[in-house]
Amino acid sequence: MADKLIIFDTTLRDGEQSPGASMTREEKLRLARQLEKLRVDVIEAGFAASSNGDFEAVRSIADAIKDCTVCSLARANDRDIARAAEALRGAKSMRIHTFMATSALHMEKKLRMTPEQVHEQIRLAVRYARKFTDNVEFSPEDASRSDLDFLCRVLESAIAEGATTINIPDTVGYGVPELFGEQVRRVRERIPNSDKAVWSVHCHNDLGMAVANSLAAVKIGGARQVECTVNGLGERAGNTSLEEIVMAVKTRRDYYGLEVGVDTTQIVPASKLVSSITGFPVQPNKAVVGANAFAHASGIHQDGVLKQRDTYEIMRAEDVGWTTNKIVLGKLSGRNAFKQRLEELGIELESEQEVNDAFRRFKDLADRKAEIFDEDIHALVSDQAVHHEPDEHYRLVSMAQASGTDARPHARVVITVDGSEHSTEADGNGPVDATFKAIEAQADSGAELMLYSVNAITTGTESQGEVTVRLSRSGRIVNGVGADPDIVVASAKAYLSALNKLHSRAERVNPQGGV
Ligand code: KIV
Ligand code: ZN
User: Fold this and answer.
1) Ligand nearest to the CA of 201
2) Running DSSP on this structure, what letter comes out for residue 162?
3) Using CA positions, which residue lies closest to atom 1 of ligand 1?
């Protein structure tokens, strides 16, 4: 029987630290349900002590998820650890993940603590976490730049205090595969009690080597857990990409000799959900989940694949969840068929009222678009969650715009601001620009537009457009997403969604910000 590689998903925690990727409790719960269908082993649901919102998100996920271990991050102090334990109380299987920096640079400049103080605090933190659960993970932050002797002393103590998983983070993406793999091997070999813990790695992608570093730690270092995120989402250049790790280990089982429990047919649905919730599009040439990952443009390749598939394909598209866009529903589909499709897609709406709202929106969409695909249903539900919150500050009522070769584009937008209706008009360079200017004529947000991108949800010109708008104000960055068959309407929805996020006061503590 082959060893198992534990897949620890941190899309909801480290992934969420990407600028603008923050998610609502409802979005996190929906994504956690998809991760459960994907059958990852551990879901890091958030950082409970960072904000009340994150606490509630971790709690809801802990209460709802039955088939994965649910984990919360906690800095190495009693308050964070107690808060994580409280949020995780309802979990069928829980883990507390506590961490503290161990590199000289971080200890001196960020923590302003001596190595002895750090060592002692780590001991106390792991001991305290063990009072709540026997599943405790410890991470020495910035491990790849930490002194090896000190790292070994600290990790030996963490295991002696009861840490059951030791995670080696390459926090700043500094590692290179052979050295990083070797570092994990040496640490494991030098620590006398290393066999009492599962060894894990957590790599960032600053030099584009997160997946290679993680796999080297598995092969050379003997790591048996990899921390990763769907689409490689994460701070700066992102984290290790889950789909690449899983498919590398599965496709090259001859080399790695390891089992993974993931249901790979759920990879593409998970990727699409992450992208539509966070507004981070997937690049077309991204391995496994990019739109071109299985597209053969060259005639020689097409010919080869038609003759025998494995001439140019090492994985099968359907094994990772690519399906040809299937028409699933149309204008004449009834409420029962719609509800059943929601269930088949794993979308659980919280009340009959929400199902009714979604069905009404589906009927509106079906009036404007003949064929409704699964992707449309996902977008519709995301859109409903984002644009129909009871406390939504800005809401689109109606809009119209005119553009052409002979006239300056002009837009008229009617929005409600805190319940009262306003109509504004503006000219712009194009219809989208005019629409944003008309919205700003009322909102006067002072925000800077950092990114505007449009994606077709399915194929063809009948597809809905999915628009992402990234806004920044006073150092805060948010993403808004909107979908509609009319891309100017989708753009207005995305802009208003970003403005609503800026308007919400929820603030978070950054885990890397010290203890
Ligand atoms: O990158 C990092 O060091 C982390 C730790 C909190 C595990 O995210
Ligand atoms: Zn990280």
Assistant:
1) 1
2) T
3) 171
Instruction: Return the sign of the alpha-carbon dihedral for residues 312, 314, 319, 320.
Output: negative
Closest ligand 1 atom to residue 142 Cα is 3
As a whole number of angstroms, the distance between CA 500 and CA 431 comes to: 22
End-to-end, the C-alpha distance of the chain in Å comes to: 42
Contact predicate 296/312, CB 8 Å: yes
Q: Which atom of ligand 1 is nearest to the CA of 511?
A: 6
**CB-CB contact of 168 with 186 (8 Å):** no
Ligand 1 atom 2 nearest Cα = 171
Instruction: Using pLDDT thresholds of 50, 70 and 90, give the confidence band for residue 309.
Output: confident
CB atoms within 10 A of CB 150: 17
Closest CA to 456 of 320, 325, 296: 325
Pocket of ligand 1 (CB under 6 A): 14, 73, 99, 139, 141, 169, 171, 202, 204, 511
Is the CB of residue 479 less than 8 Å from the CB of residue 394?
no
Q: Taking the CA of residue 370 as centre, how many other CA atoms within 13 Å lie in the half-sphere pointing to its CB?
A: 3
Residue by residue, DSSP assigns 457-507 as: SSSSTTSPEEEEEEEEETTEEEEEEEEESSHHHHHHHHHHHHHHHHHS---
Provide DSSP, 52-106: HHHHHHHHHHHHH--SSEEEEEEESSHHHHHHHHHHHTT-SSEEEEEEEE-SHHI
Q: What is the per-residue pLDDT across 193-235, written as a single tens digit (0 to 9) for each? A: 999 999 999 999 999 999 999 999 999 999 999 999 999 999 8
Q: Indicate the pTM of the whole model.
A: 0.87
Dihedral, 102, 104, 110, 111 alpha carbons, nearest 10: 60
Q: In what order do the strands lie in the sheet with 394-402?
A: 394-402, 410-417, 420-427
* CB-CB contact of 388 with 382 (8 Å): no
Distance CA 245, CA 171 (A): 18
For 461-485, how does the pLDDT look when each residue is reduced to its tens digit (9 = 90+)? 888 898 999 999 988 888 888 999 9
pLDDT in tens, 166-183: 999 999 999 999 999 999
* Share of residues in the chain with pLDDT > 70 (%): 95
Q: For the purposes of burial, counting CB atoms within 10 Å of the CB of 121, is it exposed (0-12), middle (13-18) or buried (19 or more)?
A: middle
Q: Quote the ligand 2 centre to 15 CA distance (angstroms).
A: 8
Half-sphere exposure of 204 (CA within 13 A, CB side): 20
Where does residue 391 rank: exposed (0-12), middle (13-18), buried (19+ CB within 10 A)?
A: exposed
- Of 145, 221, 148, nearest to 185 by C-alpha is 221
The SS3 call for residue 405 is coil
Token pair 């897949």: residue: 7
